[in-house]
Protein backbone atom coordinates (compact mmCIF):
# COMPACT_ATOMS: atom_id res chain seq x y z
CA UNK A 1 0.00 0.00 0.00
CA UNK A 2 1.51 3.30 -1.14
CA UNK A 3 1.53 5.89 1.66
CA UNK A 4 4.29 8.28 0.67
CA UNK A 5 2.61 11.51 1.82
CA UNK A 6 0.19 10.29 4.46
CA UNK A 7 1.31 9.22 7.96
CA UNK A 8 -0.05 5.94 9.26
CA UNK A 9 -2.38 5.26 12.18
CA UNK A 10 -3.48 1.95 13.62
CA UNK A 11 -6.95 0.46 13.26
CA UNK A 12 -8.21 -0.98 16.54
CA UNK A 13 -6.11 -2.56 19.27
CA UNK A 14 -3.89 -4.67 17.04
CA UNK A 15 -5.09 -4.02 13.51
CA UNK A 16 -3.09 -2.81 10.53
CA UNK A 17 -1.50 0.57 10.05
CA UNK A 18 -3.55 2.52 7.52
CA UNK A 19 -3.34 6.04 6.08
CA UNK A 20 -4.13 8.38 8.96
CA UNK A 21 -6.40 10.51 6.80
CA UNK A 22 -9.08 8.80 4.78
CA UNK A 23 -10.89 9.92 1.65
CA UNK A 24 -14.64 10.24 2.14
CA UNK A 25 -16.41 9.33 -1.09
CA UNK A 26 -20.01 10.33 -0.37
CA UNK A 27 -19.84 13.69 -2.11
CA UNK A 28 -18.24 12.11 -5.17
CA UNK A 29 -21.53 10.37 -5.96
CA UNK A 30 -24.37 11.91 -3.97
CA UNK A 31 -25.80 14.69 -1.81
CA UNK A 32 -23.50 17.53 -2.91
CA UNK A 33 -25.13 18.38 -6.22
CA UNK A 34 -24.68 16.66 -9.58
CA UNK A 35 -21.71 14.25 -9.59
CA UNK A 36 -18.86 14.86 -12.04
CA UNK A 37 -18.21 12.48 -14.94
CA UNK A 38 -16.61 9.09 -14.37
CA UNK A 39 -13.35 10.33 -15.89
CA UNK A 40 -13.23 13.33 -13.54
CA UNK A 41 -13.84 11.09 -10.56
CA UNK A 42 -11.30 8.52 -11.75
CA UNK A 43 -8.75 11.35 -11.84
CA UNK A 44 -9.36 12.03 -8.13
CA UNK A 45 -8.93 8.34 -7.29
CA UNK A 46 -5.77 8.12 -9.41
CA UNK A 47 -4.29 11.14 -7.65
CA UNK A 48 -5.25 9.73 -4.26
CA UNK A 49 -3.16 6.65 -5.03
CA UNK A 50 -0.21 8.84 -6.03
CA UNK A 51 -0.47 10.83 -2.79
CA UNK A 52 -0.89 7.77 -0.59
CA UNK A 53 -4.43 8.75 0.43
CA UNK A 54 -5.53 5.14 0.06
CA UNK A 55 -8.04 4.71 2.90
CA UNK A 56 -11.30 5.09 0.98
CA UNK A 57 -14.69 5.37 2.67
CA UNK A 58 -17.80 4.41 0.70
CA UNK A 59 -21.32 3.13 1.40
CA UNK A 60 -24.02 1.24 -0.43
CA UNK A 61 -26.27 4.33 -0.31
CA UNK A 62 -23.77 6.77 -1.83
CA UNK A 63 -25.39 6.85 -5.23
CA UNK A 64 -23.27 5.00 -7.79
CA UNK A 65 -20.15 5.05 -5.61
CA UNK A 66 -19.57 1.32 -5.18
CA UNK A 67 -20.19 0.81 -8.89
CA UNK A 68 -17.74 3.62 -9.67
CA UNK A 69 -15.09 2.01 -7.47
CA UNK A 70 -15.72 -1.31 -9.18
CA UNK A 71 -15.00 0.30 -12.55
CA UNK A 72 -11.86 1.94 -11.17
CA UNK A 73 -10.52 -1.29 -9.65
CA UNK A 74 -11.11 -3.11 -12.94
CA UNK A 75 -9.36 -0.51 -15.04
CA UNK A 76 -6.48 0.19 -12.65
CA UNK A 77 -5.74 -3.24 -11.20
CA UNK A 78 -4.82 -1.51 -7.92
CA UNK A 79 -7.26 -3.08 -5.48
CA UNK A 80 -4.35 -4.20 -3.30
CA UNK A 81 -3.21 -0.59 -2.85
CA UNK A 82 -6.48 0.53 -1.24
CA UNK A 83 -7.78 0.09 2.31
CA UNK A 84 -11.44 -0.12 1.34
CA UNK A 85 -14.29 0.71 3.71
CA UNK A 86 -17.97 0.55 2.91
CA UNK A 87 -21.21 0.32 4.86
CA UNK A 88 -24.69 -1.17 5.11
CA UNK A 89 -27.78 -0.32 7.13
CA UNK A 90 -29.91 2.12 5.17
CA UNK A 91 -32.44 0.60 2.81
CA UNK A 92 -31.45 1.33 -0.77
CA UNK A 93 -32.94 4.57 -1.98
CA UNK A 94 -33.77 5.79 1.53
CA UNK A 95 -31.97 8.00 4.02
CA UNK A 96 -34.49 7.30 6.76
CA UNK A 97 -35.33 3.57 6.76
CA UNK A 98 -32.76 1.45 8.57
CA UNK A 99 -32.29 -2.33 8.61
CA UNK A 100 -29.36 -3.55 10.69
CA UNK A 101 -30.60 -7.13 10.97
CA UNK A 102 -28.33 -10.10 10.37
CA UNK A 103 -30.06 -10.87 7.08
CA UNK A 104 -29.67 -7.30 5.87
CA UNK A 105 -25.99 -7.29 6.85
CA UNK A 106 -25.21 -10.45 4.88
CA UNK A 107 -27.31 -9.56 1.85
CA UNK A 108 -25.89 -6.05 1.66
CA UNK A 109 -22.32 -7.34 1.93
CA UNK A 110 -22.90 -9.76 -0.95
CA UNK A 111 -24.30 -6.95 -3.09
CA UNK A 112 -21.42 -4.61 -2.24
CA UNK A 113 -18.81 -7.25 -3.08
CA UNK A 114 -20.54 -7.75 -6.43
CA UNK A 115 -20.74 -4.05 -7.29
CA UNK A 116 -17.17 -3.40 -6.15
CA UNK A 117 -15.90 -6.44 -8.04
CA UNK A 118 -13.72 -7.49 -5.10
CA UNK A 119 -13.29 -10.62 -2.98
CA UNK A 120 -13.22 -8.83 0.36
CA UNK A 121 -13.85 -5.50 2.08
CA UNK A 122 -11.14 -4.23 4.43
CA UNK A 123 -13.49 -2.42 6.83
CA UNK A 124 -17.23 -3.07 6.87
CA UNK A 125 -19.47 -0.75 8.88
CA UNK A 126 -22.97 -0.89 10.18
CA UNK A 127 -23.86 2.55 8.80
CA UNK A 128 -26.74 3.11 11.20
CA UNK A 129 -28.43 0.95 13.83
CA UNK A 130 -32.12 0.19 13.94
CA UNK A 131 -32.92 0.59 17.64
CA UNK A 132 -35.29 -2.40 17.44
CA UNK A 133 -32.48 -4.76 16.37
CA UNK A 134 -30.16 -5.84 19.17
CA UNK A 135 -26.56 -4.90 18.40
CA UNK A 136 -25.61 -8.45 19.39
CA UNK A 137 -27.49 -9.80 16.35
CA UNK A 138 -25.71 -7.40 14.02
CA UNK A 139 -22.32 -8.18 15.52
CA UNK A 140 -22.75 -11.93 15.10
CA UNK A 141 -23.50 -11.41 11.42
CA UNK A 142 -20.43 -9.20 11.00
CA UNK A 143 -18.27 -11.78 12.76
CA UNK A 144 -19.59 -14.50 10.44
CA UNK A 145 -18.66 -12.38 7.42
CA UNK A 146 -15.21 -11.89 8.92
CA UNK A 147 -14.82 -15.63 9.54
CA UNK A 148 -15.80 -16.26 5.90
CA UNK A 149 -13.09 -13.86 4.72
CA UNK A 150 -15.56 -11.44 3.14
CA UNK A 151 -14.55 -8.62 5.48
CA UNK A 152 -11.37 -8.07 7.47
CA UNK A 153 -12.35 -5.50 10.10
CA UNK A 154 -15.59 -4.42 11.78
CA UNK A 155 -16.87 -0.88 12.22
CA UNK A 156 -19.97 0.71 13.73
CA UNK A 157 -21.30 4.19 13.01
CA UNK A 158 -23.41 6.60 15.07
CA UNK A 159 -23.81 4.29 18.07
CA UNK A 160 -23.97 5.22 21.74
CA UNK A 161 -21.32 4.31 24.27
CA UNK A 162 -23.65 1.67 25.69
CA UNK A 163 -24.19 0.07 22.28
CA UNK A 164 -20.46 0.09 21.60
CA UNK A 165 -19.76 -1.62 24.93
CA UNK A 166 -22.33 -4.32 24.22
CA UNK A 167 -20.95 -4.87 20.73
CA UNK A 168 -17.42 -5.29 22.08
CA UNK A 169 -18.63 -8.05 24.40
CA UNK A 170 -19.69 -10.06 21.33
CA UNK A 171 -16.51 -9.54 19.33
CA UNK A 172 -13.80 -7.10 18.34
CA UNK A 173 -14.95 -3.75 17.04
CA UNK A 174 -12.05 -2.02 15.32
CA UNK A 175 -13.58 1.35 14.45
CA UNK A 176 -16.44 3.61 15.41
CA UNK A 177 -17.30 6.27 12.83
CA UNK A 178 -18.91 9.44 14.09
CA UNK A 179 -19.17 13.11 13.20
CA UNK A 180 -16.33 15.05 14.78
CA UNK A 181 -14.76 18.37 13.94
CA UNK A 182 -13.92 21.66 15.57
CA UNK A 183 -17.59 22.49 14.90
CA UNK A 184 -18.91 19.32 16.52
CA UNK A 185 -17.45 18.20 19.83
CA UNK A 186 -20.40 16.14 21.07
CA UNK A 187 -18.40 12.91 21.50
CA UNK A 188 -16.26 14.64 24.13
CA UNK A 189 -19.24 15.05 26.47
CA UNK A 190 -22.43 13.47 27.70
CA UNK A 191 -24.24 15.05 24.75
CA UNK A 192 -22.51 12.43 22.62
CA UNK A 193 -22.64 9.74 25.35
CA UNK A 194 -18.94 10.37 26.07
CA UNK A 195 -18.19 8.22 23.03
CA UNK A 196 -14.60 9.41 22.65
CA UNK A 197 -13.68 8.27 26.16
CA UNK A 198 -15.51 4.97 25.71
CA UNK A 199 -13.81 4.21 22.40
CA UNK A 200 -10.42 4.94 23.91
CA UNK A 201 -11.15 2.74 26.91
CA UNK A 202 -12.12 -0.14 24.60
CA UNK A 203 -9.27 0.34 22.12
CA UNK A 204 -11.59 1.32 19.26
CA UNK A 205 -10.25 3.76 16.66
CA UNK A 206 -12.42 6.81 15.93
CA UNK A 207 -12.98 7.66 12.27
CA UNK A 208 -14.23 11.24 12.09
CA UNK A 209 -16.66 12.01 9.30
CA UNK A 210 -17.49 15.59 8.28
CA UNK A 211 -14.19 16.93 9.72
CA UNK A 212 -14.69 20.05 7.60
CA UNK A 213 -18.10 20.78 9.12
CA UNK A 214 -19.83 19.80 5.87
CA UNK A 215 -17.85 22.45 4.08
CA UNK A 216 -18.30 25.32 6.52
CA UNK A 217 -14.75 25.01 7.82
CA UNK A 218 -13.28 25.26 4.32
CA UNK A 219 -14.17 28.94 4.30
CA UNK A 220 -15.66 28.56 0.82
CA UNK A 221 -19.21 29.32 1.92
CA UNK A 222 -19.84 33.03 2.19
CA UNK A 223 -23.63 33.04 1.94
CA UNK A 224 -26.67 30.77 1.83
CA UNK A 225 -26.42 31.00 -1.96
CA UNK A 226 -23.22 28.95 -1.79
CA UNK A 227 -25.30 25.81 -1.20
CA UNK A 228 -28.30 26.70 -3.32
CA UNK A 229 -27.57 24.17 -6.08
CA UNK A 230 -30.11 21.43 -6.69
CA UNK A 231 -29.26 18.22 -4.87
CA UNK A 232 -27.15 19.83 -2.12
CA UNK A 233 -28.44 18.16 1.03
CA UNK A 234 -26.88 20.73 3.36
CA UNK A 235 -29.92 22.93 2.90
CA UNK A 236 -31.74 20.77 5.47
CA UNK A 237 -29.11 21.15 8.21
CA UNK A 238 -29.67 23.66 11.03
CA UNK A 239 -26.21 25.23 10.72
CA UNK A 240 -27.04 26.23 7.14
CA UNK A 241 -30.53 27.51 7.94
CA UNK A 242 -31.52 31.12 7.28
CA UNK A 243 -31.48 31.92 11.00
CA UNK A 244 -28.02 30.45 11.64
CA UNK A 245 -25.92 30.66 8.52
CA UNK A 246 -24.99 34.36 8.85
CA UNK A 247 -23.72 33.90 12.43
CA UNK A 248 -21.80 30.79 11.43
CA UNK A 249 -20.16 32.54 8.49
CA UNK A 250 -18.89 35.17 10.95
CA UNK A 251 -17.35 32.37 13.03
CA UNK A 252 -15.81 30.90 9.90
CA UNK A 253 -14.35 34.26 8.91
CA UNK A 254 -12.47 34.39 12.23
CA UNK A 255 -11.36 30.80 11.62
CA UNK A 256 -10.15 31.82 8.13
CA UNK A 257 -8.12 34.67 9.63
CA UNK A 258 -6.40 32.24 11.97
CA UNK A 259 -5.59 29.97 9.01
CA UNK A 260 -4.05 32.90 7.13
CA UNK A 261 -1.84 33.67 10.14
CA UNK A 262 -0.84 30.01 10.28
CA UNK A 263 0.04 29.99 6.59
CA UNK A 264 -2.49 27.36 5.60
CA UNK A 265 -6.01 27.09 4.24
CA UNK A 266 -9.05 26.88 6.53
CA UNK A 267 -9.62 23.28 5.44
CA UNK A 268 -6.05 22.39 6.35
CA UNK A 269 -6.43 24.03 9.74
CA UNK A 270 -9.62 22.04 10.37
CA UNK A 271 -7.99 18.71 9.45
CA UNK A 272 -4.83 19.47 11.41
CA UNK A 273 -7.00 20.26 14.42
CA UNK A 274 -8.68 16.84 14.28
CA UNK A 275 -5.31 15.10 13.84
CA UNK A 276 -4.08 16.97 16.92
CA UNK A 277 -6.70 15.31 19.12
CA UNK A 278 -4.82 12.01 19.26
CA UNK A 279 -3.28 9.17 17.26
CA UNK A 280 -6.49 7.14 17.53
CA UNK A 281 -8.47 9.57 15.36
CA UNK A 282 -8.66 9.34 11.57
CA UNK A 283 -10.46 12.14 9.72
CA UNK A 284 -12.07 11.31 6.37
CA UNK A 285 -12.63 14.61 4.52
CA UNK A 286 -14.40 14.17 1.23
CA UNK A 287 -13.94 15.85 -2.13
CA UNK A 288 -14.64 15.35 -5.80
CA UNK A 289 -11.85 17.64 -7.02
CA UNK A 290 -8.14 16.88 -7.34
CA UNK A 291 -7.10 20.33 -6.10
CA UNK A 292 -9.01 19.91 -2.85
CA UNK A 293 -7.64 16.41 -2.36
CA UNK A 294 -4.11 17.80 -2.65
CA UNK A 295 -4.99 20.62 -0.26
CA UNK A 296 -6.39 18.17 2.30
CA UNK A 297 -3.32 15.94 2.17
CA UNK A 298 -1.20 19.03 2.72
CA UNK A 299 -2.85 19.42 6.13
CA UNK A 300 -1.00 16.37 7.41
CA UNK A 301 2.25 18.31 7.57
CA UNK A 302 0.80 21.15 9.65
CA UNK A 303 1.53 21.02 13.36
CA UNK A 304 -0.58 22.96 15.85
CA UNK A 305 0.64 24.12 19.24
CA UNK A 306 -1.51 23.54 22.30
CA UNK A 307 -2.30 27.26 22.28
CA UNK A 308 -3.45 27.12 18.66
CA UNK A 309 -5.60 24.07 19.34
CA UNK A 310 -7.26 25.94 22.21
CA UNK A 311 -7.73 29.04 20.05
CA UNK A 312 -9.65 26.99 17.48
CA UNK A 313 -11.96 25.80 20.24
CA UNK A 314 -12.52 29.38 21.37
CA UNK A 315 -13.33 30.59 17.87
CA UNK A 316 -15.82 27.88 17.01
CA UNK A 317 -17.60 28.00 20.36
CA UNK A 318 -19.89 30.56 18.75
CA UNK A 319 -21.33 28.16 16.18
CA UNK A 320 -25.13 28.17 15.97
CA UNK A 321 -27.44 25.22 15.29
CA UNK A 322 -27.38 21.48 15.91
CA UNK A 323 -25.45 19.11 13.67
CA UNK A 324 -28.54 17.35 12.27
CA UNK A 325 -32.20 18.35 11.80
CA UNK A 326 -34.62 17.27 14.52
CA UNK A 327 -36.14 14.50 12.40
CA UNK A 328 -32.73 12.81 12.04
CA UNK A 329 -31.74 12.68 15.71
CA UNK A 330 -33.07 9.11 15.98
CA UNK A 331 -30.08 8.07 13.85
CA UNK A 332 -27.51 9.54 16.25
CA UNK A 333 -25.81 7.80 19.19
CA UNK A 334 -28.25 4.94 18.88
CA UNK A 335 -29.09 2.63 21.75
CA UNK A 336 -30.49 -0.69 20.54
CA UNK A 337 -32.88 -2.92 22.44
CA UNK A 338 -31.41 -5.50 24.76
CA UNK A 339 -31.24 -8.99 23.32
CA UNK A 340 -33.52 -11.58 24.88
CA UNK A 341 -32.27 -15.10 24.32
CA UNK A 342 -33.97 -18.17 25.70
From TrEMBL:
Task: Provide this UniProt record's keywords sorted from A to Z.
Answer: Oxidoreductase
Write one Gene Ontology MF term.
Answer: oxidoreductase activity
Cite a GO CC annotation: cytoplasm
Residue limits of the NADP-dependent oxidoreductase domain? 21-315
InterPro entries linked to this entry: AKR, Aldo-Keto_reductase, NAD(P)_OxRdtase_dom_sf, NADP_OxRdtase_dom
By its UniProt entry, which SUPFAM superfamilies does this protein fall under? Answer: NAD(P)-linked oxidoreductase (SSF51430)
| UniProt-recorded name of the protein | Aldo/keto reductase
- Protein species of origin: Stachybotrys elegans
